[in-house]
Amino acid sequence: MSRTPRIAIIGGGIGGLAAALALEQRGAETIICEQTGALSEIGAGLNLTPNAVKALRALGVEQQVQAIAAETDFLNIRSWKSGRYISRTKRGDFRQKFGAPNLSVHRADLLEVLATALKTTQFRFNARCVGVESNEQSAIVGFADGSSIEADVVVGADGIHSVVRTALFGADAPHFTGCVCWRGMVPAEAVPAEIDTKNGAMWLGPHGHVVHYPVRRGELLNIVAHIDSDAWTEESWTRQCDVSEVIETYANWNPVLARLYPRSEQWYKWALYDRDPLEHWVKGRATLLGDSAHAMLPYLGTGAGMAIEDAVVLGAARARKTDDLCAALATYEQLRVPRTKAAVLGARARAKENHLASPLARLRRDIQFFFREKFGGTDNTAFKVGWLYDYDVGRALQ
User: Fold this and answer.
1) How far, in Å, are 15, 210, 227, 246 from residue 251 at the CA level?
2) Cβ neighbours around 70 below 10 Å, total
């Protein structure tokens, strides 16, 4: 009889908890090592495309997530100035087309669903990872307080600034994309009447775009505004700023947006950085998951979805290769690297398409969106992402 493997997961975010749940369900002993004193998430919205919902289904928490989510009928793509509709992607038929709905959630709500689903996973808080040593038999994690733990497998789910990735593969060189973002959250009852709180919206303009969509069963409207700028380059998600920055930046955009921005009590800003996809995630008995492996720009709305998919595949690979953990990690890498690389590069391409400066280039893009919507068949999404949505990770190792 094979011994139950001990798996240490570095990072208690959405990817780390999803990995713990997938591995716990497959009979592993799991421990989450989180650098903060408690599980917590930033107060931001999150898009769950159909492939992400199917991954949550594979983890057995789809119904719980739907209970805390908002489901929209349309993604309305609009002109930055006039507000005219460029395209209206009908999300209401995604269940039929892609096998699952498109949901939007508050990040903290999703984290709570995943944490509640865990039954046997241990937690170690105030455990800041400072290094990992890995060989073919085990891996050792060192912490800032001088302590360490040894595990059969270590999973680095420690985000975009991953210490595990650096320990395994060396420091990388992130590239500033020249884009700055602001995010805010508004109670639905405080949203101006001209703003549709039941559906998602994307306002496309020169050198920028603004998105807003409902979260928490429609009780809140999440707003994210993007602009091409090199005036500020800090990558932090939690730097507060004054709403005047947002109002001034989008002063020439549609006036309804100007009335929306002050309704958020707090605004945060961050600069977007891009990283080239890694070709390998595994070294000995250690591997990467989520943003630590494939940090991507937010323009496909699937960063968290890719992390949850990673978790499902990692759990399934471990179950299939019960007696050979190195083979399980190799299978995991083989299945996940090509798909996540396509998502990273696809998001990078979308960044350019969203921010076209030339009026003629924007007109050509808008016409293309219109024809995709009207004549695109099953994949009539404006951005041609049916390949992303149609994937069912629950069948990846069947």
Assistant:
1) 37, 13, 12, 8
2) 26
**Among positive and negative, which fits the CA dihedral 122, 125, 127, 132?**
positive
Q: What is the pLDDT of residue 1?
A: 42
Nearest-angstrom CA–CA distance, 188 and 263: 10
Positive or negative: CA dihedral 193, 194, 200, 206: negative
Q: Could you give the residue numbers annotated as active site?
A: 213
Secondary structure (3-state) at 365: helix
- Please check whether residue 227 is in contact with residue 269, taking contact to mean a CB–CB distance below 8 angstroms: no
Domains contained in the chain, CATH given:
6-173+275-393 (3.50.50.60), 180-274 (3.30.9.30)
Which of 100, 92, 166, 97 has its CA nearest to residue 129? 166
Instruction: Look up residue 230 and give its DSSP letter.
Output: -
- Contact between 388 and 49 under an 8 Å Cβ cutoff? The reply is yes
Q: Please report which residue ranges of the chain form alpha helices under DSSP H.
A: 14-25, 50-58, 62-68, 94-98, 107-117, 163-169, 243-249, 255-260, 291-294, 303-320, 325-354, 359-375, 386-389
Whole-model pTM?
0.95
Does position 231 have pLDDT exceeding 80, yes or no? no
